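Progress report, Aim 2. The chain analyzed during this reporting quarter is listed below.
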Amino acid sequence: MSWGGFREGAGRPKQEIQRQNRTVRLSEQEWEIIKPVVNLIKKDNKIGRDLLNKNKEHKKIMVKDAQFINLTDKDITIYGKNHTTITFPKSGTVAFVKQQDNILDEACVDGCLFDIGKRIYTEVGNVPKPEENIFYIVPVVVAQQLPERDDLLVASNSIKNENGEIVGFTSLNVI
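Predicted structure tokens for the chain:
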């Protein structure tokens, strides 16, 4: 009879990836945000590398001499952090996405008969090819159809006047 020592199959199984303990102090709210990301990275380390690389790619937007071209049908005014504004006038060219609505079914609610459909986006138009240091302000639906493009920006965080009309935005975002 043997007491103690190594026994075949005993103990915690060896892990493929050796992990070390790290200490980070977070509030409960911060932990709730980060926890799913950590679990996702633990499942597939490639996701973490992709997130880091994507983040590095977006840093190129901070280019000093960048040119911004507005491909929407309205002038876009940005209210800056330093209490200044800049307006990007519409260029005359409007980026667009062709859409097609396919009827799937009908519904009747309280005597009102209407269609239930599915919208399909078929073609993106008037979006130039990427060029270094040029960013295009486009409608959201256009940027959503071309998520791989870091040069397509959408106006975000609208500012409204007392009548509820949009008068500007506080940022331009990549989708």
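The mean pLDDT is 87. Residues 27 and 33 are 10 Å apart (CA to CA). These observations will guide the mutagenesis work planned for the next reporting period.
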